[in-house]
């Protein structure tokens, strides 16, 4: 098969996307169950709303009142009449009002304790409540303005008992309470709040009883006299400045207005009436949550108009403003949307529920080492981040869109009344932040269970804290708004605040029969701050997540971003033949190891001729808990050309896996150089991965993907496409006996250990990589499968350099062109199997079993045949002897055994040539002894 070359960015991205979609299809029912959770919560909200409607909204106390007109003999009502006159004050709110009550127009004035005292010299009147109400005047004509200001207020209280509305029209009545959003019931009259009569001069503590309305809304009030103070200012700038300075943020009761109004008469004269009126309509809710309130403007306009008419026509001329009232209204019912009020808690949980799903998926790839194995087979960081991020964002948006559609379909006002475009953008922005946070937080966890528990604590904790802490503080007007903004920096709170704004607009919209949040309301809510917070945090979280990922998974330097990307990598240092750091080591090494080191030093002048070149590679693990540093790999020098299978033998803990981890990018070498296809493993690992295959010691597979889907994914990473890919996958499956019987299309989670091992080998070889690392590839296989796998590996090594670790001497002898025995991090010997057996196994091994009393006779007999023979094993009459080949012949051994049989009983005996296993044991023992004494 021709070399397809490294896969492009789009090819690798396409491979990961198709793998993710396949994985998603395998987990279809898990996704269905996930989507059903918001459906159930929405249905719960609907149920709560229905129950609330039955018990509260539609209860008799919250409907227009009725009275029985005609009763039958049994006392049952036959005819009843409902309406305004039969209702209590609470019920009357819901009745139809064909002719609304006429209320006297009131002037909005400051509260007694906050009125302007700048012209008084002291503020003692604020404690007694006797401060005057200040009204500012300015204009181009000073004399006209003075006359108009003097005509503004009547000099005495005139009362007409027969016509109280006329009395209120002839007198200036005012209130310090804010207006409501309708004129059906003025809170200044309905509530226990004072009403003032503003006059130029007042008798101290003067009051006058007064009544308003008609049954059942009949109110008895007491008028209090308050002095009005008109002040002339030379320019409109002065008026504006005083009104601005006379407004400040107040306490729990609200914001403070010190000046009632300001009039700019502009160019008014006897022929022209032109006036601007200043007034402040900002109350305690502030601009963020301000309800749409009525403004008490009619009385201000009437006052200045009458003052001007009196200037023209004299004191008897007057525009009579008797009353103000609302338009007629039909009968209404209570419409409290409890579902919208508790919606922020439920929907915070619904949106945050995606966080544990995304986090567990990322941590699962980390825990199972799937991310690194994908990277080893050529999947770079850029396609991984792009596809993973886009994949999670798409799944999340589909989840939220389903929620919005379902919530609207069952008529939840939370979704139905608020602008869908604002909702969509808000959810889109927050989901981006949530995904970036999941990538960032995933770096802190290595176990799925731990991350899942922490994520669900975050989910439920955010909702409950939002309801019982954040919402309480938002509704407390005395709590500093700056701290609210600071709290919203916590992502769970920013989500809750956005949902809270939606709920408030939906609740008020439903109550008034209006729309909820629209773009024109955006700046009057807290959504603009929430959007800014989410956007900035998303950007910072994404940068931090990518930075940490680069450091942890890619082995980058902490300050890698400060390096010049256009700076060329310096050329490799050409080693000298005598190196200070390794001179002593070379002198102690065996001849074959020394020759390999010298060969590597020559190859470093042109390393591209060999697939793998390691020059003095060393790995030292730092000491921990008082232990000294651990030297795992001791200056390894090794060269492996293409077409060779190099076997690494050694006892457990010898450093074989550490060496492979360095060559595959899992570990960074402490010192030395490793080159793969001429590319440095420290600086060019991303390019190395494009031509590398790995069969790790433990099978790294997706439990729900089939064997065929695994090979399709890794084949695409190796730039195989179309029919070539299908053919390569089919051949790989057949070669490892996973093609027939439907095994190829079974989930890998249902494979046996041997089947998983064969699949891992097939993955490492697909696409004909230039370099393959196999860490104990035949572990757990039966003899037949092992033999078949050896054939596959032997066939694959024709154009590939393979480094293989194994504990099977038979496997090493069958597959490996050369062997190296590793002991305590150092290479003890190197050569092909025959050379090693010839070099370290120049003896026969004689085994003989007799009774215990004949052991010494057998030992003396062997010494006679071979004076330099060594007894290497002895237990219960069974003895093993090494006989040097140069001083003994096989016939002599047979003759000695026959002689022994004639003298005593020999239960068993055998003569064998040295095996590779014997060589391994001998070298390992020698190497360990040498390292102990050195």
From TrEMBL:
Residues 612-849 form the ABC transporter domain. GO terms for molecular function: ATP binding. SMART domains: AAA. One of its GO terms (cellular component) is membrane. It is found in: Membrane. Belongs to the ABC transporter superfamily. ABCA family. CPR flippase (TC 3.A.1.211) subfamily. This is ABC transporter A family member 7. It comes from Cardamine amara subsp. amara.
């Amino acid at each position: 098969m021709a070399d397809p070359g490294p896969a492009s960015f789009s090819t690798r991205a396409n491979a990961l996307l198709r793998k993710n979609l396949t994985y998603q299809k395998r987990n279809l029912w898990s996704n269905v169950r996930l989507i059903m959770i918001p459906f159930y919560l929405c249905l719960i909200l609907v149920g709560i709303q229905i129950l609330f409607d039955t018990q509260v909204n539609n209860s008799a106390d919250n409907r227009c009142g009725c009275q029985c007109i005609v009763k039958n003999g049994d006392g049952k009502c036959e005819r009843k009449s409902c309406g305004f006159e039969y209702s209590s004050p609470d019920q009357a709110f819901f009745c139809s009002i064909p002719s609304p009550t006429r209320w006297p127009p009131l002037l909005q004035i400051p509260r007694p304790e906050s009125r302007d005292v700048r012209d008084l010299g002291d503020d003692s009147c604020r404690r007694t409540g006797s401060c005057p109400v200040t009204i500012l005047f300015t204009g181009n004509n000073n004399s006209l303005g003075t006359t108009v200001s003097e005509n503004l207020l009547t000099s005495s209280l005139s009362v007409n008992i027969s016509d109280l509305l006329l009395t209120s029209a002839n007198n200036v009545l005012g209130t310090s309470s804010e207006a409501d959003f309708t004129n059906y019931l003025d809170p200044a009259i309905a509530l226990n709040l004072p009403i003032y009569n503003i006059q130029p001069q007042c008798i101290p503590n003067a009051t006058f009883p007064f009544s308003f309305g008609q049954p059942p809304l009949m109110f008895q009030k007491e008028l209090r006299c308050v002095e009005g103070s008109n002040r002339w200012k030379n320019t409109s700038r002065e008026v504006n400045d005083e009104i601005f300075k006379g407004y400040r943020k107040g306490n729990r009761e609200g914001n403070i207005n010190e000046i009632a109004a300001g009039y700019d008469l502009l160019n008014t004269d006897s022929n022209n009436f032109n006036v601007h009126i200043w007034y402040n309509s900002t109350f305690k809710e502030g601009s963020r949550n301000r309800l749409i309130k009525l403004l008490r403007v009619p009385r201000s306009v009437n006052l200045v108009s009458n003052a001007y008419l009196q200037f023209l026509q004299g004191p008897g001329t007057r525009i009579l403003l008797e009353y103000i009232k609302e338009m007629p209204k039909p009968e209404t019912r209570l419409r409290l949307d409890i579902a919208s009020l508790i919606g922020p808690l439920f929907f915070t949980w619904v949106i945050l529920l995606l966080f544990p799903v995304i986090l567990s998926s990322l941590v699962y790839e980390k825990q199972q080492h799937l991310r690194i194995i994908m990277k080893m087979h050529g999947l770079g960081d850029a396609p991984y981040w792009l596809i993973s991020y886009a994949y999670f964002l798409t799944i999340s948006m589909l989840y939220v869109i389903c929620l919005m559609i379902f919530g609207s379909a069952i008529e939840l006002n939370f979704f139905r009344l608020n602008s869908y475009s604002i909702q969509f953008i808000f959810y889109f922005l927050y989901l981006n932040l949530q995904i970036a946070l999941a990538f960032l937080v995933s770096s802190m966890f290595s176990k799925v269970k731990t991350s899942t528990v922490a994520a669900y604590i975050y989910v439920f904790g955010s909702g409950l804290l939002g309801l019982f802490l954040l919402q309480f503080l938002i509704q407390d007007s005395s709590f500093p708004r700056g701290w609210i903004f600071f709290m919203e920096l916590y992502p769970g709170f920013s989500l809750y605040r956005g949902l809270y704004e939606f709920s408030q607009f939906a609740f008020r919209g439903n109550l008034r029969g209006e729309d909820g949040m629209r773009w024109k309301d955006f700046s009057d809510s807290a959504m603009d701050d929430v959007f800014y917070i989410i956007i900035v945090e998303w950007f910072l979280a994404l940068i931090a997540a990518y930075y940490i990922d680069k450091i942890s998974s890619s082995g980058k330097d902490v300050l890698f971003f400060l390096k010049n990307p256009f700076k060329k990598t310096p050329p490799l240092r050409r080693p000298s033949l005598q190196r200070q750091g390794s001179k002593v080591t070379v002198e102690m090494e065996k001849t074959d190891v020394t020759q390999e080191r010298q060969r590597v030093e020559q190859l470093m002048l042109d390393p591209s001729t060999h697939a793998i070149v390691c020059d003095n590679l060393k790995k030292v693990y730092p000491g921990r808990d008082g232990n000294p540093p651990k030297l795992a790999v001791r200056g390894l020098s090794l060269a492996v050309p293409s077409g060779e299978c190099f076997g690494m033998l050694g006892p457990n803990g010898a450093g074989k896996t550490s060496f492979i981890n360095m060559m595959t990018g899992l570990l960074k070498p402490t010192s030395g150089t490793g080159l793969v296809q001429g590319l440095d493993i420290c600086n060019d690992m991303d390019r190395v991965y494009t031509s590398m295959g790995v069969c790790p010691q433990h099978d790294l597979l997706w439990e729900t993907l089939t064997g065929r889907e695994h090979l399709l994914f890794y084949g695409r990473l190796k730039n195989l496409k179309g029919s070539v890919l299908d053919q390569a996958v089919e051949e790989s499956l057949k070669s490892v006996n996973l093609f027939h019987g439907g095994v190829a299309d079974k989930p890998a989670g249902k494979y046996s250990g041997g089947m998983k091992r064969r699949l891992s080998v097939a993955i490492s070889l697909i696409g004909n990589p230039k370099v393959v690392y196999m860490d104990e590839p035949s572990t757990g296989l039966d003899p037949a499968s092992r033999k078949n796998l050896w054939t596959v590996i032997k066939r694959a090594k024709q154009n590939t350099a393979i480094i293989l670790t194994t504990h099977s001497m038979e496997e090493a002898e069958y597959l490996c062109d050369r062997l190296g025995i590793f002991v305590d991090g150092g290479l003890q010997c190197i050569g092909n199997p025959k050379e090693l057996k010839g070099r370290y196994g120049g003896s026969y091994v004689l085994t003989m079993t007799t009774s215990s009393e004949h052991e010494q006779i057998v030992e003396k007999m062997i010494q006679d045949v071979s004076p330099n023979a060594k007894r290497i094993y002895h237990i219960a009459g069974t003895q093993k002897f090494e006989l040097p080949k140069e001083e003994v012949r096989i016939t002599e051994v047979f003759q000695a055994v026959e002689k022994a049989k004639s003298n005593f009983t020999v239960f068993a005996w055998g003569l064998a040539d040295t095996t590779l296993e014997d060589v391994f044991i001998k070298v390992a023992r020698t190497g360990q002894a040498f390292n102990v004494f050195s």
